Each structure stands twice: as structure tokens, then as C-alpha cells.
Amino acid sequence: MRIHMFGAALTAAVLISLGSAASITVKAGDTLSSLAARHGTTVTALLQINPGVRANQLRVGQKLTLPTRPASTPGVTVRAASVRVSAVPSVQGRLTTPFNAQHGGLDLAAPTGTPIRATMAGTVKSAVFDARNGWGWTIVLEHAGGLTTRYSHNSVNLVRTGQQVVTGQVIARVGSTGNSTGPHLDFRVYQAGIPVNPYGLF
């Protein structure tokens, strides 16, 4: 089950030796997700080592530096047979609503109280009860590379605004607060304020 994270996919990269470091050249069809998978790293690591890069704005011919070691952070994995998502990010849950034009994130059904984990290290931008937008108890994290992640409908938030969090830290628990029909996590990722498909991102 392959889902492209960014619409206009930019497919092969050329390794260029730069002394002890290496870089890749973006070619037509490449995405950060496909490049990370091909070179044994993660999108998170690529964004951290290439601070000027924006995940949804790759250009053919653009040079990206590769991390010197493969990233060890686990990412989103999709098991096609059962369509379950395991993480960092979020929770062990059943995918009930995928990313699409009408829904800018993933809905992951899980029992109330299931731990929700930070996708990657960052700063808590907000940890509030959002009644206005129907999110219920919600956490928004800011990360390197202009990425923001949102975790909504929580039963309880376990972090506060301004707090630093690390990858995999439990930040909340699954609930059904706000406009929700059952216990689940609504997980969303934004690049410069634009919703992007979380599949393959981490």
C-alpha cells in the first residue's frame, strides 16, 4: 500500500561524494519520504540536516545532504493487510479515516486512555481544550523544518504550552472529546501551515 505524501512527486537520486559526507540530487518523482527510505534515514533527519528545505517544495536538481548515520527513530509503518498504523507517531490504532481532500489527517481508533506519543522532538505550541473548532483536548507541537503536528480529541493532555518534548514521549491519552463519535486520535501534520499526508513522513 503506497500512498504519496506530496501530490507532485519529484524518483531516483544520485549520490555525490563530499569527503566524509554525501549528498543526493533530487530527480523527477522524488519525495523526501522516498529519498529517506532509499538511503536508510528518515524525513525528520533529512529536514534537521537540511534546515532550508521544505518537505512540500522539493525541486528537481536540488542538493540534499545525507545524515552520516542512518536515523534510528522509528516511523509510521502501514501494514497493508490489516491497515494498521504503528508509531511514533501517536498510538497503536486502527486507521478509520485516511488523509484525503476532505480530511487533512489520519483518524486512528484506539481504546480510551491509550498513550499518545510525540512524533518527534519539539516544543508544545498549545495544549488546550479547543471547543471552537471541535478538536476537544488538543496538543500542537512545533518541530524543525517548519513542521507542526496536531493531536486531537484526547481524554487528557499531559504536557503544557512551551514545554520541550522528545521523540516518543507520552504527551496525551486517547479520548473522544470535542466533535467525536468514539475514542480515537485525529493526527495531523502541517508544513508551513499546509496539511500534508503523514504516511512515510517520519
UniProtKB/TrEMBL annotation:
UniProt domain LysM: residue ranges: 22-66
Pfam families with a match to the protein in the record: LysM, Peptidase_M23
Signal peptide start and end residues: 1-28
Entry keyword Signal: yes
Record keywords, A-Z: Signal
Cited InterPro entries: Cell_wall_metabolism_enzyme, Dup_hybrid_motif, LysM, LysM_dom_sf, M23ase_b-sheet_dom
PANTHER family attached to this UniProt entry: MUREIN HYDROLASE ACTIVATOR ENVC, PEPTIDASE-RELATED
Protein name in the entry: LysM domain-containing protein
Species assigned in the record: Deinococcus caeni
